[in-house]
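Renewal narrative, Specific Aim 1. Our central claim is that a sequence can be written position by position from structural information alone. The example that follows is taken directly from our test logs and has not been curated for this report. It begins with the structure tokens describing the chain, in the order in which they were read.
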């Protein structure tokens, strides 16, 4: 079946991470673990921790970073989609708080999405589809998490993995074919028990790992096929930053060199829905992004997984 591919222009991207760091040495004092184990099994060295900031506060800082990067007229934003599993409270949505804190008093549709670590890719597909209708002028899509408030610091299987942060992008509808965007998103609810947050994060790391490698491969293949592109046509792959070994497995089995994957998990750990937009923002910081093709790929609790190709 032929899809209608939305045409979107990525206007800007921003990030924020709180200044306090949790190092592997800090964790050695809390649980039976070592810097050597954490580094070799995950690639993670530090994670950021919010002390008194809410998820919406970090999201607003990432959004302002995106707005200020291009001196954007924020009154054009009429859609805010916030991906998070650690929102400020159940209701109102964290997106509503973000709208208020940004001072956007004009008519804006704002809501949250929960698809765990795939949330940002889900949010981007929803935003792109909504922009395609012509009803909206610009969307602010954010992923932000304060995972450290749901991490069980007595469980060495999970506490070494997660951190806090935020990333945001601003997108507008485009009429140019070269701005076609491609998406693949899916869920598998029968695997809901592999990763849950009731009060604290509980995870069957081995099951997540096995599923993640297959899911990432499938998502990369699907979106490339839809766009009729090969990995060589892609300038950078921005994967969900969960574990370096997962990305190495995907790289090896698909024959895509590791240099194609942008990694920053050694600094941030796994920031769930924030990890992909935070990395996009660092890509914008470090590169001339004009005419670049970027492939995003994520997986997370739910089970959810998904991918996108954006042409900048
Ligand atoms: N320090 C020292 N030893 C540890 C630690 C630790 N921090 N954590 C676990 N171990 C031990 C285990 O208890 C086990 O000991 P045992 O053999 O005596 O039982 C041993 O190390 C090996 O455990 P494994 O689970 O086999 O370790 P593995 O190499 O698979 O790595 C890990 C575990 C890092 C959790 C890996 O499975 C993983 O990354 N899974 C994916 C996690 C993930 O990405 N989750 C996020 C999903 S996204 C979202 O939605 C939030």
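The sequence written for that structure reads:
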């Amino acid at each position: 079946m032929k899809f209608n591919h939305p045409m979107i222009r990525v206007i800007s991207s921003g990030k924020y991470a709180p200044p306090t760091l949790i190092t592997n040495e800090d964790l050695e004092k809390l649980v039976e673990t070592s810097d050597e184990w954490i580094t070799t099994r995950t690639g993670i060295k530090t994670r950021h921790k919010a002390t008194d900031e809410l998820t919406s506060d970090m999201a607003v800082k990432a959004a302002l970073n995106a707005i200020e990067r291009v001196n954007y007229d924020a009154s054009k934003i009429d859609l805010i989609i916030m991906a998070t599993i650690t929102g400020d409270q159940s209701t109102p949505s964290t997106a509503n708080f973000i709208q208020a804190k940004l001072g956007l008093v004009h008519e804006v549709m704002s809501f949250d999405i929960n698809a765990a670590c795939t949330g940002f890719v889900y949010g981007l597909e929803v935003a792109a589809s909504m922009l395609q209708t012509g009803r909206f002028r610009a969307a602010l899509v954010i992923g932000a998490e304060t995972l450290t408030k749901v991490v069980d610091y007595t469980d060495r299987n999970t506490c070494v993995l997660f951190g806090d942060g935020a990333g945001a992008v601003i997108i507008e509808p485009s009429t140019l074919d070269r701005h076609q965007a491609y998406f693949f998103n899916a869920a598998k609810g029968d695997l809901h028990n592999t990763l849950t947050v009731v009060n604290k994060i509980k995870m069957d790391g081995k099951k997540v790992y096995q599923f993640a490698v297959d899911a990432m491969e499938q998502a990369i293949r699907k979106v490339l096929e839809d766009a009729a592109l090969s990995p060589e046509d892609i300038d950078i792959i921005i994967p969900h930053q969960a574990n370096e070994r997962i990305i190495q497995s995907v790289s090896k089995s698909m024959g895509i060199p590791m240099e194609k994957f942008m990694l920053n998990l050694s600094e941030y750990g796994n920031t769930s829905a924030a990890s992909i937009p935070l990395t996009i923002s660092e890509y914008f910081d470090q590169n001339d992004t004009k005419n670049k093709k970027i492939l995003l790929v994520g997986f997370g609790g739910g089970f959810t997984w998904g991918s996108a190709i954006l042409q900048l």
